[in-house]
Design brief:
By secondary structure, the protein is α/β, with parallel strands linked by helices. 57% of the residues lie in helices and 9% in strands. It is built from 22 helices and nine strands. It has a nine-stranded mixed beta sheet, sandwiched between helices. A hairpin with a 2-residue loop joins strand 2 and strand 3. Helix 13 runs antiparallel to helix 14 and helix 16 crosses helix 17. It is elongated, with a radius of gyration of 33 Å. The relative contact order is 0.09.
């Protein structure tokens, strides 16, 4: 549904046009906005109101109606008689199927938002409207315009007066009342009523409730074609938005409602670690197409190339064990036990599978710059915090488990069956999930600044994993020659990310 809001602004986003657009979007509408007044307000009150010339207003209205079919319009703050009449003139020429008027006269803070001279002019819009949604103060003003002698103690009785006088539906809202229930009453011109009940939400953060409710009703009425359905759904939504208001911490006064509460509750939770994994998908795509993994998977990998890879992996695993053990010492409970077991498993891996494959040769050779760069990156993460280090070590779990899924189980007689099977071992996949869960807990408990460093550490480690798979083809015979030790000049530029030539190879593979 294409829904137009004609209203004033709120720079803090809790009321006016900004609240209208949020409410429209929360109900799957396409929101549009025409500014009637620039209001300097916040959660404590209104400071000033600037009303642009009516020619600016008319230009905005015509810009919309000349180009877009409008399914519904919500009219909020208008400010002056000239603005009211300009909107009424436009509405007579371009009336959409649904028109809701929220006669913004008095803000929740008590500030007047409409000239006294314009109060009667606003009633001209009622003849063009389907529904009017005044708050209790505004309902009293409207009732007084119709019958100055009418009592204002009963909002439903007042709503009946207004509905009959202007032949329009009136929603008498219960938000400003007392008691455990906050009931809204939809009053028809013939005096019939429909009550919409809800428990009163104990919160002072009600800024923009009127704006938001009227915009929600307009959007829902355009969708459902029925006012009672629309009011009922909007009432439920507003109740949930009020329940979430206290968690927003916006402003020192009466804060705004949580427009996204219902939508957020319906969405799946995006884990921090899943977002990081999605962030590195291009590197992963290049990794799985690397010549090393392709040859490893189909069994054509040369023994010498594989041996060179294993020799560097031993160096890596020795340092990796140290970092996992440090995480174990810094954690508690299940996390401490997991990281400690992982460190022990890392030591077993280096001592058993690698040395069995290497046959005791090359394991103590020099460290290749790629391996040294990766280790320098882990050392830097360790100096930051346990949370950042945990994020940095996680790709070794996740990338290897993911590679195991991609390579599948090797056929009988595969020359590297033990290694490929180790990648795809269900027990290792379970360990990868556990590591991810523990890092997720650390991310959830961290500040945004720390989470940012965690994300970057994870991204960099994933790039180093890709570089590690490319590294064996740089080794060749006599691979210890020309090898730099950690901290040497060749590794200083690669301690945070793979070198440019490695990145270039990854980009070639991804093409």
């Amino acid at each position: 549904m294409r829904v137009l809001s004609i209203a004033g602004t709120d720079p803090t986003g809790g009321a006016g046009l900004q609240a209208d657009l949020k409410a429209i979007a929360a109900h799957d509408g396409y929101g549009m906005a025409v500014v009637t007044a620039v209001v300097a307000q916040n959660t404590r009150g209104v400071r000033s109101v600037h009303v642009p010339g009516v020619e600016v207003l008319r230009d905005q209205l015509d810009a919309v109606s000349d180009d877009v079919v409008v399914d519904a319009v919500k009219i909020g703050m208008l400010g002056t008689t000239a603005v009211v009449r300009q909107v009424a003139e436009w509405l007579r020429a371009h009336r959409p199927p649904v028109v809701v008027v929220d006669p913004v006269m008095v803000a929740t803070s008590g500030d007047r938002l409409l000239d006294h001279d314009a109060e009667r002019a606003v009633t001209e819009l009622f003849a063009l409207a389907d529904l009017v949604t005044p708050n209790r103060s505004e309902l009293a003003v409207l009732t007084g315009l119709v019958d100055p002698s009418a009592p204002d103690a009963d909002p439903v009785a007042a709503a009946r007066v207004v509905a009959a006088a202007f032949d329009v539906l009136v929603l008498a809202k219960g938000g400003h009342g007392d008691g455990p229930s906050s009931d809204d009453v939809l009053v028809a011109p013939d005096g019939s009523v429909r009550v919409f009940r809800a428990a009163r939400v104990a919160t002072t953060n009600t800024h923009g409730t009127g704006c938001s409710l009227s915009s929600a009703i307009a959007t829902l009425a355009a969708q459902h074609g029925d006012w009672e359905v629309a009011v009922g759904l909007a009432k439920d939504w507003l109740t949930n938005a009020l329940r979430g208001a206290d968690t927003l911490h916006v402003g020192a006064g009466a804060g705004p409602i949580d427009h996204g509460a219902v939508v957020r509750a319906a969405l799946p939770v995006v884990r921090w670690t899943d977002a990081w994994w999605r962030d590195v998908h291009e590197v992963l795509d290049a990794t799985i197409r690397s010549p090393f993994l392709v040859a490893l998977g189909d069994g054509t990998l040369e023994d010498a190339v594989f041996a060179g890879y294993l020799a560097q992996d031993v160096h890596y695993l020795r340092a990796y064990e140290r970092h996992l053990a440090a995480l174990g010492r810094g954690a508690t409970g299940d996390a401490a036990a997991f990281w400690t077991r992982a460190a022990a498993g890392c030591a077993d891996e280096a001592a058993a599978l690698h040395h069995r494959r290497l046959g005791g040769t090359r394991a103590d050779g020099g460290v290749h710059p790629t391996c040294a760069g990766y280790l320098a990156h882990l050392d830097a993460a360790a100096r930051d915090s346990d949370a950042v280090l945990a994020a940095a070590v996680l790709p070794c779990f996740r990338v290897y488990a993911w590679v195991g899924e991609q390579l599948r189980q090797p056929a009988a007689g595969h020359p590297f069956a033990d290694w490929v099977s180790a990648y795809g071992d269900p027990a290792f996949a379970a360990a990868s999930r556990s590591a991810t869960d523990h890092v997720e807990e650390l991310a959830a408990a961290s500040t945004p600044a720390v989470r940012g460093r965690m994300a970057r550490a994870f991204r960099t480690s994933t790039a180093w994993e890709a570089a590690f798979f490319a590294m064996p083809y740089d080794l060749g015979e006599g691979s210890s020659r020309g090898v730099a030790a950690p901290g040497a000049s060749r590794t200083s530029r690669t301690s945070s990310a793979p070198s440019s030539d490695t990145v270039q190879r990854i980009q070639v593979w991804s093409g």
